[in-house]
Design brief:
The structure is a single chain. With 594 residues, the protein is of the alpha/beta class. The chain is 27% helix and 27% strand. The protein contains 16 helices and 32 strands. The strands form six sheets. Strands 20, 21, 22, 23, 24, 25, 26, 27, 28 and 32 form a ten-stranded mixed sheet that branches. It has a seven-stranded mixed sheet with strand order 3-2-7-16-17-18-19, with no helix packed on it. Strands 8-9-10-11-12 form a five-stranded parallel sheet, with helices on both faces. α4 (167-175) packs parallel to α6 and α12 (313-320) runs parallel beside α13 (322-328). The protein starts with 12 loop residues before the first helix and ends with a strand.
Length: 594
C-alpha cells in the first residue's frame, strides 16, 4: 500500500528504473557511501561494504571499491553505516519545544523517525491540538508517525481535561492519512472491564488496521491476558526485569524506554540471558526534558546508555532500527539493503555513537552534529490562551474543616501510590497538615468545570521549603501545585497563571524561577538552548526547596502525580481518585476525631 505520509514514493516507476540501472552498473549512483563498515541488522555482522543511493532509495549494497561512479561520493572510512534510528513511543510536548525544534535537536544525532502520541495537546486543545500536531510536522525532513490519542482524559469520571475523546473522535482521527494508529491505551481498567467507551475506541482502532499501542503498567496474569485479548499489543510501562521477561513471554512488543534510567541496567542483564535479541524489543524515549534533550539527545541516548550498561551495540541498534520498523509495519525502513528507503546514519563509533552524517530519504540533512537544512517553525494562535483560571489566594490551598482534630486520607509514596490515613489538627477552620506531609493541589484550568483547587496530602514526599507549580501535569494538564505552605503555593500558582502556563518555584513568598510555556501550557515558542537553560534553572530552584530521594522521589515524579489511570490513589481536579477501587473523595477529610 502506498505510504502517503512520505514526501518520496518508493513505488514510483521512474525511480525504480533508475535504481535498477544504477544497481546493475548501467548508470551512476546519485550518492556513493564508500569505505565504511556496515552494521548488518539481520545477521549482527559488522562487515565492509559500500552503499549506492538513487534519490530516496538504496539501490545497492556491495563490496568496497567495487564501484566508483557516482555524482557524489561520501568518505565513510572509519565510520559505521546504520539505518536511521526509530523512536517507537514519545511525546514531543515533554521536551517543551515545537516539532521543528525537536527535529533540529535529534536529526543530527541520527534519529530519523519518531512515533508521536500528542495526547498532551489533545487533552488541552482537543481535536484542534491533534490537527496542529499533524500540521506542524508537514514539510520536516523528519519522519513523524502521529498517533490518535486514545485516553482523553486518561481516567474519565475521575478527572476532567480540556476535551473528551470517545469513539466518534477516534473514528475521525483514524481517517486522517497522517495518523498511524491508536496511541497508548492508558485506561487499562476500562479495557479489562469492558467499559463501553473504551470498547468503542479499541474496536474502531482494530477496524482501521493501524497500530494499537499500549500502556500496561502493573498488569500481569489474567489482567494482562484480558488487556491483550482486547487487541492491545505493546507496552513501555515496565517496572522491573521480571515484568520485562513476563511481557516478552506474553507476546507484547516492548518499547524499552529511556525515561526510567534506574531500570535499564536490570533490563540489560535480563536481555543478556538470551542468545539473541527478541525481535519484539524496540526502544523509545517516552518523555525527555529539554535540558536532557539538549545535552544528550533522543532515542540515540537510549542506545548509548544500553551499550554503557553492557548490551551489545549491534543489539541496541537492532532494537532501534529493524525491530522498530517491523513493529511499525514499515518494510522500507530499518535495514541497509537494496530497495529500502535511504534513511542512513554514519556513526563514528559504537560506544558514544556520534553521528558524522545523517541522510533522510536520501538527502543529507545533518553533518558533524548540525543541520544542513533550515527548518520552518510554527506557533499558531490556537494554542495560546489555554489558562482559563483566575488568580488564587493562599486560603485556596488550605483544607476546610470543623472541630479540633480530624482523620484525613493520605496518598502514600511517589509513583507506586497507596492509601493511608493520619490525624490532623484543625486551626481557624482549616486542617493543619501533619508533620512530614506535603500538600498537593489540582485546579481545573480548561473551563469545563469549577476551578476550585482540590487538595490532597502526600506522604514520603520529603520536607518542602517552598512550592512548585506546573501546568505540565499528566495527562489532563490541570494546574498542579506542590508545597509546604499555602502562601508559597499561591505565589507559584499565580506566576504560572499570569504566564499563560508553565512552571514556577516559590519560597518565602517570592517567585524564585519561572518557565513560561504559553503554547497550551505545555510548550515554549523559544529555541531549545534557551528552553533548556530556563528548565535547568528551574530544576536548580526546586532542588533548593526539596530534598530528592531517588529512584522514586525525584523531580520527574511531580509530573506523574496526577496520572489517575494508574493503579492506586492520585490527586486530580475532581479530588482524590482511585480507578482500581472506584473511590473519589472531594476532600481528604474523613471525619472528626473529637
Amino acid at each position: 500500500m502506498k505510504d502517503i505520509q512520505e514526501p518520496d514514493d518508493l513505488a514510483e516507476p521512474a525511480l525504480r528504473r533508475r535504481a535498477v540501472a544504477a544497481a546493475h552498473g548501467d548508470a551512476p549512483f546519485d550518492v556513493l557511501i564508500a569505505g565504511g563498515t556496515l552494521v548488518d541488522m539481520t545477521t549482527g555482522e559488522l562487515r565492509a561494504a559500500d552503499v549506492g543511493i538513487v534519490g530516496p532509495l538504496i539501490a545497492s549494497v556491495h563490496a568496497r571499491e567495487k564501484r566508483a561512479d557516482a555524482a557524489e561520493t561520501i568518505d565513510a572510512l572509519g565510520a559505521f553505516i546504520s539505518p536511521g534510528l526509530i523512536d517507537t513511543h514519545m511525546h514531543i510536548e515533554s521536551s517543551m519545544v515545537t516539532p521543528a525544534v525537536y527535529a533540529q535537536a535529534v536529526l543530527p544525532r541520527g534519529v530519523t523517525t519518531i512515533v508521536w502520541d500528542p495526547h498532551e495537546f489533545g487533552n488541552v486543545k482537543g481535536l484542534d491540538g491533534v490537527r496542529w500536531a499533524v500540521e506542524a510536522t508537514r514539510g520536516l525532513p523528519f519522519r513523524t508517525i502521529v498517533l490518535a490519542p486514545s485516553c482523553v482524559p486518561s481516567a474519565p469520571g475521575f478527572e476532567l481535561s480540556g476535551a473528551d475523546f470517545g469513539g466518534a473522535a477516534m473514528v475521525e482521527m483514524l481517517t486522517w492519512p497522517e495518523i498511524g494508529g491508536v496511541a497508548e491505551v492508558m485506561n487499562m481498567r476500562g479495557v479489562i472491564g469492558g467499559d463501553p467507551r473504551m470498547r468503542a475506541i479499541v474496536e474502531v482502532g482494530l477496524a482501521s488496521g493501524k497500530l494499537m499501542c499500549g500502556h500496561a503498567r502493573g498488569l500481569k496474569g489474567a489482567d494482562l491476558n484480558a488487556y491483550m485479548a482486547a487487541g492491545v499489543d505493546s507496552d513501555h510501562e515496565l517496572i522491573s526485569a521480571e515484568d520485562l521477561l513476563a511481557k516478552l513471554r506474553a507476546g507484547l512488543t516492548i518499547e524499552l524506554r529511556g525515561s526510567h534510567d534506574h531500570l535499564l541496567p536490570e533490563f540489560v542483564e535480563a536481555l543478556k540471558t538470551f542468545d539473541h535479541l527478541p525481535q519484539s524489543v524496540t526502544l523509545c524515549t517516552d518523555d525527555v526534558f529539554p535540558d536532557d534533550l539538549h545535552a544528550n539527545g533522543g532515542v540515540d541516548d537510549v542506545v548509548r546508555r544500553l551499550v554503557r550498561y553492557g548490551l551489545r551495540a549491534e543489539w541496541a541498534l537492532e532494537a532501534a532500527t529493524l525491530n522498530a520498523a517491523v513493529r511499525l509495519g514499515r518494510r522500507d525502513l530499518g535495514l541497509i539493503a537494496a530497495g529500502r528507503r535511504a534513511d542512513i546514519v554514519l556513526f563514528e563509533d559504537l560506544t558514544d555513537f556520534p553521528a558524522r552524517i545523517v541522510f533522510a530519504n536520501g538527502r543529507r540533512v545533518a553533518e558533524a552534529g548540525r543541520m544542513v537544512l533550515d527548518l520552518q517553525h510554527s506557533a499558531p494562535d490556537a494554542l495560546f490562551g489555554t489558562m482559563k483560571l483566575g488568580a488564587l489566594k493562599a486560603d485556596d490551598f488550605r483544607i476546610p474543616a470543623t472541630g479540633g482534630k480530624v482523620r484525613v486520607a493520605t496518598i502514600d509514596r511517589p509513583r507506586f501510590t497507596r492509601w493511608g490515613e493520619a490525624e490532623a489538627q484543625v486551626a481557624a477552620g482549616y486542617v493543619v497538615p501533619p508533620p512530614g506531609v506535603t500538600v498537593i493541589a489540582v485546579a481545573h484550568r480548561h473551563a469545563r468545570a469549577d476551578d476550585r483547587p482540590r487538595i490532597g496530602l502526600l506522604t514520603d514526599w520529603g520536607s518542602w521549603r517552598g512550592a512548585f507549580c506546573t501546568t505540565v501535569s499528566h495527562d489532563s494538564h490541570n494546574l498542579t501545585v506542590f508545597g509546604g505552605n499555602a502562601e508559597d503555593m499561591a505565589a507559584a500558582a499565580n506566576a504560572v497563571i499570569s504566564a499563560g502556563g508553565g512552571m514556577a518555584v516559590a519560597s518565602e513568598g517570592e517567585v524564585d524561577c519561572l518557565l513560561p510555556l504559553p503554547l497550551a501550557g505545555l510548550v515554549s515558542c523559544k529555541g531549545l538552548a534557551e528552553v533548556a537553560k530556563n528548565f535547568a534553572d528551574l530544576r536548580a530552584a526546586i532542588d533548593r526547596i526539596v530534598d530528592w530521594r531517588p529512584p522514586y522521589l525525584v523531580f520527574k515524579a511531580c509530573f506523574g502525580a496526577t496520572l489517575a489511570c494508574n493503579e492506586g490513589p492520585h490527586q486530580t481536579d475532581r479530588g482524590l481518585a482511585d480507578v482500581s477501587t472506584g473511590r473519589l473523595l472531594d476532600t481528604p477529610v474523613l471525619g472528626p476525631l473529637d
